[in-house]
Design a protein that fits this description.
alpha/beta; 10 strands; globular; single chain; TIM Barrel; about 260 residues; two-stranded antiparallel ribbon; eight-stranded parallel beta barrel
Length: about 260
């Protein structure tokens, strides 16, 4: 692995081998998502606790202070919307020149295994990897599965994660599943981070699945809505960070969460 690739990955994945990525890219297909109407205001109180921020070039250029010290993971797939025919019909919407110009530490794109656009999606990933490897930029595949596989069972998640790694992704983002998640991680030869998915009903649910996912081999998370859509985003991200980087149990994380809310820490 070349120096540039190693350097960028070392900024994303910390010395303890763990990572907390904060995505605010949801507007690329959802528009002004609740909690992200003003991205700069959303991240202001919480970005310091993240290891990297994931977003589109438009939000980066228009909403983020260029003096920010956190590495950027740039979302480079899109050209679809929630009112369109199929979210899986994504294209690459950002050039390698733009990725370099905006000094991204990594890029991300979705791959949709099990859909009618599977080949297009995976071919796009291969082309992106080819371009980014030439310049030492890691690609994170945001793996997903088709509607017929929407139960998010381990065998399907493992399929999508492994294919993404086989094509050349340096990191894979995938959903957590309670049963046999270790098989997803064990079958993927690159680091795995856990996606948040829809907002949970309680914060304890988040602490539980983050902790269990780490125990089963994930290096960390890429959580957005379960942080910035919550009532107490700072308390939430501090507690999740403690699980990832300090080895807190879900109960210890919940205690910290309540202490932050109460202003005791």
């Amino acid at each position: 692995m070349e120096w540039g690739m190693k350097n960028r990955l070392s900024r994303l994945i910390q010395k303890d081998g763990k990572a907390l990525f904060l995505p605010i890219d949801h507007g690329y297909f959802q528009g002004p998502t609740h909690g992200l109407e003003h991205p700069e205001e959303t991240i202001k109180p919480i970005y310091q606790y993240a290891d990297a921020i994931m977003l589109t070039r438009g939000v980066l250029r228009n909403c983020i202070d260029p003096a920010i010290e956190k590495p950027i993971i740039m979302r480079v797939s899109g050209a679809v919307s929630v009112v369109g025919e199929d979210l899986a019909a994504e294209s690459i919407v950002t050039s390698i020149q733009e990725i370099l110009r905006l000094n991204a530490s990594a890029v991300s794109m979705s791959v949709f295994v099990g859909t009618k656009y599977e080949n297009k999606s995976l071919s796009n990933l291969a082309k992106l990897v080819d371009e980014c490897e030439e310049f030492g930029i890691p690609v994170m595949a945001v793996s997903a599965v088709g509607k017929e596989l929407e139960k998010r069972e381990a065998r399907y998640l493992a399929l999508a994660a492994r294919i993404s790694a086989e094509i050349g992704a340096r990191v894979v983002k995938t959903y957590y599943c309670k049963e046999h998640f270790e098989k997803v991680v064990d079958g993927c030869p690159v680091p795995v981070v856990i996606a948040g998915g829809p907002k949970t009903e309680t914060q304890r649910e988040v602490f539980d699945f983050v902790y269990d996912g780490l125990q089963k081999g994930a290096i960390g998370v890429n959580l957005g809505r379960n942080i910035w859509q919550t009532q107490y985003p700072v308390a939430s991200i501090k507690a999740i960070r403690a699980i990832i980087h300090e080895g807190y149990t879900p109960q210890e994380a919940e205690d910290l969460y309540n202490q932050v809310i109460a202003g005791k820490t």
